[in-house]
Amino acid sequence: MGSGITQVAAVAGHLVKIFDTQTSAVARAIESVKASLRRGVARGNVSEEDALATVNRIVPVTKLEELADTGLVIEAIAENLALKQEVLQALERIVARDCVLATNTSSLSITELGTALDQPERFVGMHFFNPAPLMELIEIVSGLRTDPKIVAIVAATAKAWNKTPVHAKSTPGFIVNRVARPFYAEALRLLSEQAADPATIDELVRESGGFRMGPFELMDLVGNDINFAVTQSVFRASFFDSRFTPSLIQQEMVQAGFLGRKSGRGFYCYAPQTDRPLPAFEPLGSSPERIFLSEPRPVTEALLERLQSAFPHASRFSRTTDPNKLSQADDAVLRLTDGRTASRVARELGIPNVVLIDLAHDYSQARTLAISRSDQCSDRAYRSIVGLLQATGFNVVRLKDLPALVVMRIVTMIINEAADTVHHGLSNQCDVDLAMRKGVNYPAGPFAWATRLGTTPVYEVLQNLATHYGEDRYRTSPLIERSFWSGRRLDEATN
Fold it and tell me: Helix (H, G, I), strand (E, B), or coil: what is residue 373?
């Protein structure tokens, strides 16, 4: 990370001094920058002259005292509170009183780190994302004693570096690592309940949810040890809030040394000539004989258009007061999940042949969709729905009958965490959406996604999850409660 930050500042035209207690680490960092710039030259993204000028602006130093004339120092050492405080104290004794001190941390409290300083008002968090030269986002994090003028200076500096700064108050996980926790936590919960295997859940999150990577392949890429450590850090710092409870499965993975790509094994095996396991798709079935389609509404309009295109002679429901009822194929009813299990829906509606379908980011582009069937549903009725969706061009995944399926569950929990972040004044909805799109490449920001879904469906899913599990983990954010009862969109309720 240090070499990446060095490259960002040097490319922007700054003279950059780089220090490490191990001189070999400095040499490796500079060589890393050179290699990155060579790749840029080869791709035509940077000229040889600019690459050489960038390297010439990087100056290795062997003592902290050589940083005395700097205007901004960014500390990027290990995520260790005491060690970071020790280095920051040493820097404060060396640099001028108007020098800005910053730390690159993903989870440590800026307020607590600043207690070691005589001038905590000039101390700020600058959380870069890896790889720093490529990732646009920087979280600018202020502690309780950080001067707002320092935040403004650092944000302006980030913009001058062609980065996108977002502001957060010092809180466990800041924006990205806090709001992203359900992406991993709910996938791990679904795995623990045997909803599906990792390859199938990853397939659904990518091909239906629109995320660039599934949660299990992403945990393997980052490292299960790192992901688990961040979750533990947020959990402890939040006074053991159940929403951030670590997973026993991931703990076992770490204890076994199954850390992911770097260890050769994680949720997947990375040994040479080892094939990635395939997702579990339903076998091909025949199309139903009788098909009825509902009138479209925004969240499912693309799905119904796709069904209508595949079955142009399908009849329309004359009238329905059930917005979640999408289609009827022979004797089976297809409904969008609202957070209840299919078996509960079948019991409460008095309709045995119920099949639920998962959310997709874009039904017109999705290649895979998840469904679940009620225990009361007949095999024949279930096969009618499978055939309907397969004829429309979807790979169909059958999940265990659990509430909210996969994409709907993960997305609504991300929205819930984002709403709580804004509700507590830790950031604003614009910065939260920016952070999740730019920092972790989500297909949509949580508030933008909530606007597309509508407040009522989000509220209902969360309420039904809470009812099913009876756990505080699924409590609804007060901001969503307020939005639901006022009838306003979630982004309007933030004002």
Answer: strand
Active site annotation includes 242: no
Tokens of 108: 């440590």
Q: Which domain holds residue 374?
A: 291-398
Provide the token pair at 245: 């409870």
From 46, 79, 60, 50, select the one nearest 18 (Cα to Cα).
60
Residue 127 annotated as catalytic? yes
Q: 74 has which bridge partners?
A: 102
| One domain, residues 79 and 9 | yes
Q: Is 104 a catalytic residue?
A: no
Q: Are residues 251 and 371 in the same domain?
A: no
Q: How far apart are the first and last CA of the chain?
A: 37
Contact present, 16 and 57 (Cβ < 8 Å): yes
Contact 471, 482 (CB under 8 A): no
Is residue 78 one of the residues assigned to a domain?
yes
Q: What is the pTM of this model?
A: 0.94
* Same domain, yes or no: 159 and 182: no
pLDDT tens per residue, range 466-477: 999 999 999 999
CA distance 54 to 10: 5
Name the catalytic one among 3, 36, 104, 106.
Answer: 106
C-alpha span between 331 and 277 (Å, rounded): 34
- Residue 414: is its pLDDT beyond 70? yes
Catalytic residue (choose from 75, 92, 139, 186): 139
Are residue 8 and residue 136 in the same domain, yes or no? yes
* Digit-coded pLDDT (tens) for 17-37: 999 999 999 999 999 999 999
470: left (phi over 0), alpha (psi -120 to 50) or beta: left
Q: Which of 36, 75, 109, 127 is catalytic?
A: 127
106 part of the active site: yes
Which one, of 456, 357, 358, lies nearest residue 407 by Cα? 358
